[in-house]
Specification:
The chain has two domains: about 230 residues, Beta Polymerase, domain 2 (2-Layer Sandwich); about 120 residues, Poly(a)-polymerase, middle domain, CATH 1.10.1410.40. The longest helix has 23 residues. It has 13 helices and twelve strands. It starts with a helix and ends with a helix. It is globular and about 80 Å long. It has about 375 residues and is an alpha+beta fold. Helix 8 packs antiparallel against helix 9, helix 8 packs across helix 10 and helix 9 crosses helix 10.
Length: about 375
C-alpha cells in the first residue's frame, strides 16, 4: 500500500493530459474484454419489476395463510452491482427476498453447535406467539397457543411449523420448493407472461428461472431467500456456497446485501465515468481459470475503493488501478492473508449497518486455506505470476 501511495504521489505531479498511447491501450482492453455492459441496468429493471409483480400476487394469494411474509426484493451480486464478469448471454440476475415471520409466529436465530464469534451459519427457530392478548389483538385469527388443535384444523390454515419447517426450524429447501411451485402457478397472472415464456430450472435452495423472448433472447434470474440479522444489512441466506452444502435447516451468513449497498454508495460518490466497475470486469476476465475466486477479487477492489480516493478512479486511470488491484492481490498471496471487508473495518461507510459484534470480531481471512497449505500457496503464486 505504501508503494502504491508513493507511486500515486508521483503520478499526481504529472500533466493532467491523457497519454494517447494509454488511451489506445484502454480502448483495446475494452474491446478485447467486452468491458462495456450498458444492458445490465435495463435488464435488471425488467427482472426487478417481474419479481415485484410476483410478490404482489403472492401477497394476494397467501394473505390468509401463515407462510413467511415476502418483503420487497433487493438486487445483489455482480449483475446488480453493475460489473458482471460473464458474457451477456450468461449473466444471472440475483434477487434477494427477505423473509419475515407471519402473524402468530416469531423467528429466533440460534448459533450453530460450534459456537464462537462470528457465526457464519445458524438455524432459524420458529416459535408460536400469542395473538389473543396485547394492545391490538388480531380478531381475524385463532391463537395457535390458546385454541384447541381440533378447532385450529377446522377453522384456520396450518401454522408455518407444519408447512415449511423441519422440526422447529425453518427449512431452506422446503421454502425454495414452495416458491418454485408458486411461480409456476402464478406466472400467467403477471404482465411479463405476455412477453416471455418461463421455465423453472431445478434448484434445491433457491428459485432459478429462465425467461425466453420470442426473439430467442434469454434472461436468467435467481431468487434467494434470507432472514435479516436485527436491523443490519447482514442476512442469513438459504443459498449454500460452492464448497459447502449444509443441512436444509442451516442458513449461512450472507454479506450480499451489504456489498450491493457498498457499490451503490460508491456509485453516488465516484466521479462520472468511474473505472472501478470496468476494473472489476477486466480483472475477473484476466483471472478466469486461475485458483483465485471472484469473491477474493471483489474484496480486494472494495478495500482499494476505501484506500484510494474516488477522484483517482477516473476512466483515464484504468490501467493504473488495474495494476493496483493485481499488486494488492499479489501481496495478499505472499502474506497468505486477505481480510474480509466487513469485519473490524474502520473505513466502512456509515450507510452500511453491521451487527455490533462485527467491529469486535477477529477479521476473517479469505486466504486461510493458503496459510494452512504451503504447497497451495506456492501453486497460487506461480499461477498468478504466469497470468
Amino acid at each position: 500500500i505504501h508503494e502504491m501511495d508513493n507511486r500515486r504521489d508521483s503520478e499526481s505531479e504529472e500533466s493532467e493530459e491523457e497519454n494517447p498511447a494509454e488511451i489506445n491501450t484502454i480502448w483495446i482492453f475494452s474491446r478485447r474484454f467486452q468491458l462495456s455492459v450498458p444492458k445490465l441496468a435495463s435488464r435488471r429493471r425488467v427482472v426487478q419489476e417481474l419479481l415485484s409483480d410476483l410478490l404482489q400476487v403472492s401477497h394476494n394469494l397467501f394473505s390468509d395463510s401463515f407462510f413467511p411474509v415476502l418483503e420487497p426484493i433487493i438486487g445483489v451480486g455482480s449483475a446488480c452491482e453493475g460489473w458482471s464478469p460473464h458474457k451477456e448471454e450468461d449473466v444471472v440476475y440475483c434477487m434477494f427476498v427477505p423473509l419475515k415471520p407471519p402473524r402468530g409466529h416469531a423467528f429466533h436465530l440460534e448459533p450453530d453447535s460450534m459456537g464462537g464469534m462470528p457465526q457464519t451459519s445458524r438455524r432459524i427457530r420458529v416459535e408460536l406467539v400469542c395473538t389473543c392478548t396485547g394492545e391490538q389483538p388480531d380478531q381475524n385469527m385463532l391463537c395457535f397457543l390458546h385454541h384447541s388443535e381440533e378447532e385450529l384444523k377446522r377453522n384456520q390454515a396450518a401454522s408455518l411449523l407444519h408447512t415449511l419447517c423441519t422440526g422447529p426450524y425453518l427449512d431452506g429447501e422446503k421454502i425454495a420448493l414452495w416458491f418454485q411451485t408458486f411461480v409456476i402457478s402464478a406466472w400467467s397472472m403477471v404482465p411479463q407472461s405476455r412477453h416471455y415464456s418461463m421455465k423453472v430450472v431445478p434448484s434445491c435452495r433457491s428459485c432459478k428461472m429462465k425467461l425466453m423472448k420470442h426473439s430467442g433472447r434469454s434472461l436468467f434470474v435467481e431468487t434467494v431467500f434470507g432472514v435479516q440479522q436485527g436491523d443490519s444489512d447482514i442476512f442469513l441466506s438459504s443459498q449454500p456456497t460452492e464448497a459447502q452444502l449444509p443441512p436444509s435447516t442451516t442458513w449461512l451468513e450472507s454479506y450480499a446485501v451489504a456489498e450491493a449497498k457498498f457499490f451503490r454508495h460508491v456509485a453516488m460518490q465516484a466521479p462520472p465515468r468511474s473505472c472501478h466497475l470496468k476494473c472489476l470486469r477486466l480483472c475477473a476476465r484476466l483471472l478466469k481459470g486461475s485458483g483465485l475466486s471472484t469473491y477474493a477479487l471483489k474484496t480486494t477492489v472494495m478495500h482499494l475503493l476505501t484506500l484510494i480516493p474516488l477522484s483517482e478512479w477516473q476512466h483515464k486511470y484504468l490501467l493504473m488501478r488495474v495494476d493496483d488491484i493485481m499488486c494488492y492481490l499479489r501481496c495478499c498471496l505472499e502474506e497468505k492473508r486477505l481480510k474480509h471487508f466487513f469485519f473490524d473495518n474502520e473505513d466502512m461507510p456509515k450507510e452500511i449497518s453491521l451487527p455490533p459484534a462485527f467491529q469486535e470480531a477477529q477479521p476473517l481471512n479469505l486466504f486461510q486455506h493458503l496459510a494452512q497449505d504451503p504447497a497451495a500457496q506456492t501453486e497460487a503464486l506461480k499461477e498468478f505470476d504466469d497470468l
